[in-house]
Amino acid sequence: MRTIGRVLRAALALALGLAFLLPIYIAFVTSLDRPQDVFVYPPHLVPDWNFSVWVQTWRGNTWMLAILNTVVIALATIAIALTTTVLCAYTLVYIPFRGKTVLWTALLAVLMIPEQALLIPNFVTMAKLHLVDTRIAQIIPYGASIFGVFLLRQHLLTLPREYHDAARIDGCGHLAFLWRIVVPLSRPILFTIALYIFIGCWNSLIWPLMVTSSPRVQPIEVLLSTFLTQDSSNWQGLSAAAMFATLPMIALFVLFRKPILRGLSKSSGING
C-alpha cells in the first residue's frame, strides 16, 4: 500500500509540474515556430528553432536596460526590506516593551489590506516627494515586508531562549547578539524572504506602470506589457518577449536550486 501511495503522489506531482510548465513550453515553441505554423491545429509541440523573431524582438526594444532596472530595484528593495524585517522581528521577540501585543496585532492587520488599496496613497506620497518616474519610487513602498516579519518572528520563537540569556551574561549587547547569533541562524529564512521579494519585484507591473512613464527607469514587466497593447496580433513577438522575461528567473532557480529548496523547507516548518 505504501508503494502504491508513493506512486500516486509521484504521478500527481508530475501532473501538476507538467500543468505549470505547459504554458511556458507552448510560448517557447510559438516564439521559435515559422509564422505559418503558429495557428496550425493540432499545435506544434516541437519548435522549428527559428530564432529570427527572438533577434527582431530583442533588437527592437531596450531589454538590457529593463533587466538592469529590475535587478537594481529588486536588490535595493531586498537590502532595505531585510534590514527592516530583521530589526522589527528581533524587537518583537527579544525586547520587552509595553504594547508589544497591540503592535504585533496591528502589523498582522496590515497583511489583510489589499495592495490595490494602497496604490493611490502611495502615488500621492511619491508625487509630494517629487519621486514619480524614478527607481526610488519603485523601491520605497516595498522597503518593509510584514510577511517577512511574520516569517522571521515565528522562526526566532523556535530558537532556544538560552542563547539570548547566555549572550547577555557574557556581556553581549542586542546588536552584537543580532549580528553574531540571530542572523547566522536565520540565513535560510532570510534567503526565503529575499527570494519572495525578488520574485515580487520581477513580476511587479501595476505599481511601476502607475508611477513611471520613462523607459529609462521602467522594469521588465512594463516593457513586456507594451507588447500586449501596441502589437497584440504579433503572437510570436509576444511569446519571445515572454521568454526574455521568464528565462532569467528559470536560470536563477537552476543556479540557486539547493538554497531555495532549503529555505522553503525551513520556512514551511515554522511554529506558532
How are the secondary structure elements laid out?
Layout: H1 2-32, H2 52-59, H3 63-94, H4 100-111, H5 119-128, H6 136-139, H7 146-158, H8 161-169, H9 174-185, H10 187-203, H11 206-211, H12 220-230, H13 235-255, H14 257-267
Description of the molecule:
By secondary structure, the protein is mainly α. The chain has helices at 2-32, 52-59, 63-94, 100-111, 119-128, 136-139, 146-158, 161-169, 174-185, 187-203, 206-211, 220-230, 235-255, 257-267. The longest helix has 32 residues, at 63-94. The model has no long low-confidence stretch (mean pLDDT 88).
- How many strands appear in the DSSP assignment? 0
Task: Give the C-alpha Rg.
Answer: 23 Å
Order of helices and strands, N to C? HHHHHHHHHHHHHH
Which outline best applies?
Answer: globular
Question: What oligomeric arrangement do these chains adopt?
Answer: single chain
If you average the pLDDT, what whole number results?
88
The assigned structural class equals mainly alpha
Helix amount, in percent? over 70%
